[in-house]
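Morning. Coffee machine broken again, so started the prediction first thing and wrote up yesterday's gels while waiting. Chain of 172 residues, entered below exactly as on the submission form.
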Amino acid sequence: MGSLTGLQQIGLANTAAGAAGSLLSGLGQYESGQQQRAAYDYNADMTLQQMQQQMQTSEAKYANLIGRQASAYAKAGVDISSGSPLLVMAHTAAQGGVEQESEYQAGTEQAALQRYYGKVAAFNGTVGGISTALAGLSKPGMQVASIIGPSSSYGAVPTVPDSMAPTGSGGW
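Came back before lunch.
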């Protein structure tokens, strides 16, 4: 078993450093994907908060409108407990409900989309990190083989003795 020369040892050390760099690069890609996912999740949370605020604003707007309608009818001496005034205020309340439902649907769909984008980003970071690490490890492996070489006892390729070599008759 032979020992490695100084140049071979330096080459192996450089190869190991390259492999470590590839692993760190792969880990960086993974972490980047996780950070992107966290950012998308934060955006989804903010979208839901904004949706809730919009719904509260709509509710207040329609409650105010119904109050103004009731005041206008009362000022004019119209009974608001029955008939057309009651129907108008009921219709206004229904419009408010429809608007709030629309805001809810839009907000939840946008938040779900943000969360999906986050999952995709995390997946891409994981796959990219793994492929970078594997690609980075395959190159140093080939470099180690070329540094050590087949003449060395570390990487010697076994040979078949002549007595076991195939014969010209098509058999062993």
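The chain has a mean pLDDT of 84. Going to sketch it on the whiteboard this afternoon.
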